Every structure is written in structure tokens, then in C-alpha cells.
Amino acid sequence: MIEVQIAGAGAGKTHGLAKKIVAHYDSTSYRKIFAITYTNNAKQNISQAIINQLGYLPDNIVVCTVHTFLLNEIIYPYSPFVLNEVHTTSSQCKTFSNFPPSKSAEKKQREAKSTISRLKKIGVIHVDETYAAAWRVVDENYSKHNSQKKKSKVRKVHRLISSAIDKIFLDEAQDLDKTALKAFQTIGEISADIYMVGDPKQAIDYPKDFKGWLATNKANEKVKVLPNIKTSRRVPQRILDLSNTFCPKGQDQVSLSEVEGRLTYITTENDHYDAVLSNYIENGSLVSILRKEGNYSTKQAGLLPEFDPEVEELLTVKFPEYEDGVVTYSLQRFFASLLSKNDNNGSIRKFLAKLEIPYDKELFKQLCRSAEQYSASKDNSAKYRVSSIHRTKGLEAKVCVLILTPAIFKCLMQDSVTKFNKTWNIVYVALTRAESELIVAVDMDLLGDKYNHDDIVRSLESIGFEALKN
Ligand SMILES: Nc1ncnc2c1ncn2[C@@H]1O[C@H](COP(=O)(O)OP(=O)(O)OP(=O)(O)O)[C@@H](O)[C@H]1O
């Protein structure tokens, strides 16, 4: 059985999910309850909410990300049995390199495919394959389960899942793609009950998939959609008045917050722009932008280049006296320091020379991918380090700052844009993070010559924003 709770931003979905888990929890049961979500941020929120309500996190309540759940509970244990595919670990290494710059899209695609199948041969599943692999394990309709013997293996897997898992609580279900939804549906219908919460309006990665899945299952007795919650505990009414214009008909939210709320803007014509923005960034407000652009970078500090598993193996055998993890970490740091001083090719050459590893074309390609992935995640030239809107999903702060870019401005003004697509949903997410004030930061350098300062200010004021007072 699958129960689906749909609700808008700040309705209390995550909080309610934790409450349901606590109510369902039975300290005498050996079976596990899984609280599954999409990001590590959300994982922490759920764990904290359970701890707040129960006082501790019991051993048989497992809070994990979707990928961890599918890998540890479905793919690693059962894929050898039903698919004859053994995976012992996963990798999120980059699957293709952009080097040389003239490389065609098809060639990159071929390289990605070959990386994934090479990894598979050594028992490593690439994270991009997780949903499909999980679905193949649990669905007897998969074309290769084409005999009664194979189908009965799948049924056996469901019996095992059923004996190990009590119930699955799934947060942010709108972030799953079609394949993952199919996999969870199969599990929910056959082996373990699922309670899922989601908001199709916040579907940023696959804007159509969750909505499509709900529509397909309208008449399915095993998928029960609960009445939509139309209140928001977080977002003040003043801000909802704007975010509601991004909701489908009949899904407007009403605020339960006692805060009146403010919509403000600040532009680079204001001498205090830099000080105001820097202050909000430093004091932990949610400051976000669509993607890194101009003076604004979006990556986390402290990332290291990720090696392919084969490269990792090659490097760790060179230092048998140390633990593998220590060797990998040290060499990642060494490679990162080379990359910060040299171009990618020079860094790879120096890296191999220092380790006395002879040049090999395939190894060079693999290190190129690691270097590119790392370089893309670093941007020291940007003045402001902010978050992507993507990463603010599920988060909240008293004051939130949204950096205006042309695409966001166009969508915010609903100026001949497609409704309910990715950008539309992104704007809805950005509008609904603040508990008290949403500030739009207008950087005229970022917007470019096509935009006129006074026109932008007039437009923002027409939808309820007022100038931020110094
Ligand atoms: N029953 C409740 N009692 C008190 N506070 C609540 C309750 N439910 C939710 N809240 C608070 O309201 C805010 C929004 O809740 P929550 O994050 O669960 O909403 P959400 O629907 O998951 O939001 P989003 O769609 O943005 O992910 C949080 O600060 C949460 O602590």
C-alpha cells in the first residue's frame, strides 16, 4: 500500500513525516523503518525531528538518502541473485572527459557508456545507474525476467524485503524520476508499505515525472492520495500572495504564520549593496542564485577531486603500508594542490611523474575527468559564494536573498514563459524559503545591457516588492 501526502512549501511535510515515523515506531519490532530523503541536508532535518520527538534515534529507524537505500537494501543484496550482477560499491566519478576540446557529444556519450560498463565489470555501480538497477531487481515485468524461474526469484526478493522492512517513509518524492517511482511503487504494492510526501510544484529535476505518476495511478487502489494540505506554517501571507501565483488553480496556500512578512529588493545602485549582501552571506541567511554566474559562485568549499575506482586501486597499491583511505585522501589533496597551480594536463603529468607511474592513455583520460570535475567545482574568482536555489530546497531561514538573473526575472514577472516547467518550479522554491523576509538582489552587471534599472524596480514593485531600507 502506498499513501501519498501532497502539500505546498512549508506545509509541514518533513515535520509531519517525522511525526508519522514516531507514531508508527514499535520498539519491540526487529523490522526496520526507513526514512528516505533526497539530500544529506534533508536527512539531518528528519533525524533531528525524530530526536526532538522521541529523545533519540532508535537503531531500527534508518534515515538515509534514496541512493543509499536502493544500493544497500535492494541492489547490493539482491542484484547477484536476480540479475546475476554483483555490485559491491558505487562510484560517482565523472564518466566522460571534455578533453580534447573538439570532442563531439556522441563521443562523450560513448565514453560515458564505456566508463559505466567498465565499472560494472569490476563490481562498481555508477550512481547514475542506481534507479534503473533497483527497478530491474524488483519488477518481474523487466524484459530479462522472461521465465517463471526468473519471475519467482523476484517474488522471493519481495518476501525477503517484506521480512526485513516494516515501512518506508519517503520525503521529497517529487525529486524521483519515472524509473525510481516505478521501483518504489513495486516495493510499496508488493513488499513494504510506503508513506510518501511531496510537492509537484517543487519538482526541479524531473518536473513532469511525479505529476505523471500521480495521474497514472489515479484509479490504482494501492496508491491512496490523501487530501492536499493547503496551509503553510513557514511562509508568511505577504510572501504567499506572490508564490500563490505560481500554484495551479485551487492549490493556493494560506499562511498559519503570525509573521506579516516582507518582500524587498536592493540594487547595485545602492552603495550598501555589497555590505548588505556580504552580511547576509556571512550570517547564514539563505542567499541563492539559479546557477553560478558573474561574481557569484555556488560550489561548496573543501571538495576534493574524485578518482575513478580503478585509479584509486592503482594508487593505493603503491603504498601498501598505509590504509587505502589515507592514501586516497592524501593523493586527492596532492592532486588538488597541483590543479590549483597548473593547468589540468600539467597537473596530471606532474602527478604521475611524482608517483613514478608511467604514462598510459586510459589513465590520463581518467585523471582528466577527475581534474575537470574538480576544476568545475572550484571558482575562486567569484566575489560572493552563495547557494544554488537547488540546494536550498527543503531549507528555510528568517531572511532569504535571491540573486536576480535574467531567467529568474522573466519567470518572476511571468513574462511570456512556460508555466510549471523547471524554471517555474525553481522560482516557486526560491520564493518559499523565507520565514519573514525575501530580498531580491538586483546586480545590474549580472543582468546586462538589455535591462534598465528603473524598469526592473518598477516591475518588482508591481508584484509587491519594496525597496530595502538601509
Ligand atoms: N505540527 C507542527 N508544529 C509546529 N511546527 C511545525 C509543524 N509542522 C511544521 N512545523 C514547522 O514549520 C516549518 C516548515 O515545516 P517543514 O519543513 O516540515 O515543511 P515542508 O512542507 O517539508 O517544507 P518544504 O516543502 O519547503 O520542504 C518548519 O520550521 C517546521 O519546524
Automatic annotation (TrEMBL):
Domain of life: Bacteria
Protein keywords: ATP-binding, Helicase, Hydrolase, Nucleotide-binding
Keyword DNA repair applies: no
Phosphoprotein is among the record's keywords: no
Binding residues for ATP: A7, G8, A9, G10, A11, G12, K13, T14
InterPro entries: DNA_helicase_UvrD/REP, P-loop_NTPase, UvrD-like_ATP-bd
Residue intervals of the UvrD-like helicase ATP-binding domain: 1-249
PANTHER family named in the record: ATP-DEPENDENT DNA HELICASE SRS2, UVRD / RECB / PCRA DNA HELICASE FAMILY MEMBER
Name of this protein: DNA 3'-5' helicase II
Source organism of this protein record: Paraglaciecola algarum
